[in-house]
Write a structure and sequence with these properties.
Layout (H helix, E strand, L loop, with lengths): L2 H14 L7 E7 L18 H8 L2 E7 L4 H10 L26 H7 L3 E6 L19 E4 L19 E3 L2 E4 L7 H15 L5 E6 L20 H23 L6 E7 L36 H4 L3 E4 L8 E8 H11 L13 H5 L9 E6 L2 E7 L2 E4 L5 E4 L15 H16 L2
Helix pairs in contact: 3-8, 5-6
């Protein structure tokens, strides 16, 4: 079947299939992919036809927040907590930290209500002890890297080798990163094909487009967006393969598919990264937003979010309502039949399905690692890093105009909100 015919068949199958009480969940999490890297978000040269199609079949959110770097983003996603609430310790090469025993991961919560769980890709939440690995934190199986793909010479000074894992076993060093996205995808497709009637949760955390960039030979040189475009189009191919696998397994209509990113693109590279073939232009686009990875300007924390659930989430929707990775934790647990986890997130399903016109989230706390750097409440955003910066994100999403001097009462209110949060820690 040609790709176009498969896509048309998929769309037809989605429209006709009945709803399912306990949906399967596929969560696709890119690394350092910027808001402006997708065609549906306005990229002029990178082709993302599968992601664009996914958005057409569901909902695209334009005010969706993560964190400005890898570990905090994963903390919010898999624990439903702001980074300032959780002390993980070192999670990179040589680090001894991990998710504390008292925390419940998204995978553990879903497994408790009958889900089969699998993780593929980058973990970065602890690996020093076996119980810190994904298989010790709620995932039945894992294939991937313990942390970022640059955490080895010449980019990081370490004697700890970067291993590819299968479950708790180290299986490959050095890692063939050129085929990493392809191998992740193959493992995801195989997992989907093996599933029976029980619901499943598949978390695929791509290692790309985090630097250094890698892609398979058959994708190299195909994009008008250069090597970075090749890498994004490889991820787009992966999304298409997973969509195809769901259709062929007759599970597409019963599956929530989510695509997002951990943070914005890595611009203004530190000197250590400009080695081993890495170039300054090996980075994506924050779209219309100011800032990038490692900053709490919008370009560092506002990321794409696409959500598809046939028959539940209306097709072709676009929402500018505020939401965050924190909310995916609560949303997915409750969609799977679990109880409200009472973390820092909210259930987005009424918003997604049209039952509620407004997001339950009315504020978001910006963190740089575990440091609180600002807050958004409604349309107002306050950054407190170098003095007070106040922006009206409804009319100034690019954060060009500091309105702090004109609205001292708003600044005071937002500082009081930050103080209330800090008092809750």
């Amino acid at each position: 079947m040609s790709f176009l015919l498969a896509a048309l068949a998929l769309s037809a199958g989605l429209a006709a299939a009945p709803a399912f009480a306990a949906p399967n969940i596929v969560l696709l999490f890119a690394d350092d992919l910027g808001y402006g890297d997708l065609g549906v978000n306005g990229n002029p040269t990178i082709r993302t036809e599968n992601l664009d199609r996914l958005a057409a079949q569901g909902l695209r959110m334009t005010s969706f927040y993560s964190a400005p770097s890898c570990v905090p983003a994963r903390t919010q996603l898999l624990l439903g907590r702001y980074p300032s609430r959780v002390a993980l310790g070192g999670t990179g090469p040589g680090g001894a930290g991990g998710i504390p025993d008292g925390e419940t991961t998204l995978a553990q919560a879903l497994r408790a209500v009958g889900y089969r769980t699998a993780m593929i890709g980058k973990w970065h939440l602890g690996y020093a002890r076996e119980e810190f690995l994904p298989t010790g934190r709620g995932f039945d199986q894992w294939f991937g890297l313990p942390y970022s793909n640059d955490m080895q010479p010449p980019w990081v000074r370490t004697d700890v080798p970067l291993w590819l894992y299968r479950n708790a076993e180290r299986i490959e060093h050095p890692v063939d990163q050129d085929r990493l996205t392809v191998r992740y995808t193959e493992n995801a497709v195989e997992f989907i094909a093996r599933q029976g009637d029980a619901p499943f949760f598949l978390y695929l955390a791509y290692s790309m487009p985090h630097l250094p960039l890698h892609t398979a030979d058959n994708f190299r040189g195909r994009s008008r967006g250069g090597l970075y475009g090749d890498v994004i189009e490889t991820i787009d191919w992966s999304v298409g393969e997973i969509a195809r696998a769901l259709y062929e397994a007759r599970k597409a209509a019963d599956t929530i598919v989510l695509f997002t990113s951990d943070n914005g693109p890595w611009l203004n590279l530190p000197p250590r990264m400009l080695a081993g073939g890495v170039e300054p232009w090996h980075a994506g686009s924050p779209g219309p937003f100011r800032g990038a990875k490692h900053t709490t300007y919008e370009g560092g924390v506002r990321v794409p979010l696409i959500a598809r659930w046939p028959g539940k989430i209306p097709e072709g929707g676009v929402s500018a309502e505020m939401a965050a990775t924190l909310d995916l934790y609560s949303t997915l647990i409750q969609a799977g039949g679990g109880a409200d986890p009472a973390r820092d997130g909210y259930d987005l399903m009424p918003l997604w399905t049209g039952a509620g016109a407004k997001s339950p989230r009315n504020e978001f706390i910006y963190h740089r690692r575990r440091e609180i750097q600002g807050i958004r409440a409604g349309n107002w955003k306050l950054r407190t890093v170098d003095g007070d910066e106040l922006f009206d994100l409804e009319i100034d999403p690019s954060e060009r105009y500091n309105r702090a001097a004109a609205f001292p009462a708003v600044v005071a209110d937002l500082k009081a909100r930050i103080q209330r949060y800090e008092n809750s820690l």
